[in-house]
Amino acid sequence: MPTRATARKGCGEGPGRYPRLVFSPQGPSLRELCVQAFSSVERGYDLLAPKFDHTPFRTPDSYLGATADALSDLGPFDQGLDVCCGTGAGMAVLRSVCRGGITGVDFSAGMLAQARSAHPDATWVQADARALPFTENFNLAVSFGALGHFLPTERPALFEGIHRALRPGGLFALPVGAPPPLTSVAHWATLGFDLTMRVRNALWRPPFVMYYRTSPLPALRDDLMAAGFTVTTVALTVLGSRRDGSPRCRLIVARKPTDPH
Predict the structure, then answer these.
(1) Which end of the chain is more exposed for a tag (fewer CB within 10 A), N or C?
(2) Which residues is 140 bridged to in the sheet?
(3) CA 14 – CA 224 distance, rounded (Å)
(4) CA nearest to 63, candidates 242, 240, 261
(5) Which of 28-37, 62-71, 184-193, 217-226 comes out lowest in average pLDDT?
(6) In this predicted structure, what is the pLDDT of residue 4?
(7) What's the fold here for domain 30-255?
(8) Where are the beta strands (DSSP E) in the chain?
(9) Secretion signal: which residues (predicted)?
(10) Are strands 249-255 and 230-235 parallel, antiparallel or unpaired?
């Protein structure tokens, strides 16, 4: 299960993908997952952090590699930021395309402790992604799998904070998967998961915000443009295509204009 609020990691969602229900033997037990699911998002991720990289919620290396390859054609960049960094998987992407320092921000102290151990040369900041403490510090920002932890009404604050954190001309890159076909198992699995989470949050406090079906590409594009970005997409063709030939995953490339007017 996955996160939310001081720079949340949307690890359970993956970058627009859907969960593979396969756990490593080193991963959490069913009991541990249940305890996490009935905790707050922050507390849940603190508990899960030591075993997180052994769960299907970690962003796959294939998605990280595809994102890095696409960004290499748009860079190089200087300072890089991973928003909702979790245990730091996205640092490999930033390190491959950034010439300067790299920074991860997350609200879970437990996840940051794991990230700091794995990447001691990076800078780590504990903060709420809806109120990022940066102003024009970075040339590139990325985020992997975090969107499910933000309600649609919270996305404007998230995107405005990322816009503020970037220097003029800076990029925000976000992989987003195509919705699964109506006839697929993934469609009904994610629908059932979201309904279950809505019932859980209606009956249990604190809430655990994690939804798979609240971030369609058109809505993300509208919210990013409202925050001041110009938005394009890049097909990550290496990740495959759907039956209709459309890409399974696209990289949203949101640029902060060099001219504020």
Answers:
(1) C
(2) 80, 171
(3) 20
(4) 240
(5) 28-37
(6) 35
(7) Rossmann fold (3.40.50)
(8) 80-83, 102-106, 123-126, 138-142, 166-177, 230-235, 249-255
(9) none
(10) antiparallel
Residue 15 has pLDDT above 60, yes or no: no
The amino acid at 205 = R
Query: Quick check: 13 and 143 in contact, CB under 8 A?
Result: no
pTM for the whole structure: 0.82
Residue ranges per structural domain of the chain: 30-255
- Does the pLDDT value for residue 229 go beyond 70? yes
Sequence-distant (≥ 6) Cβ neighbours of residue 155 within 8 angstroms: 147, 215, 219, 220, 223
Burial of 163 (0-12, 13-18, 19+ CB in 10 A): buried
Give 153's contacts (C-beta < 8 A, 6+ positions apart).
none
Structure tokens at 33: 């997952």
pLDDT digits (tens, 9 = 90+) for 127-177: 999 999 999 999 999 999 888 889 899 999 999 999 999 999 999 999 998
Q: Which amino acid is at 99?
A: R
Counting every residue written for the chain, the total comes to 261
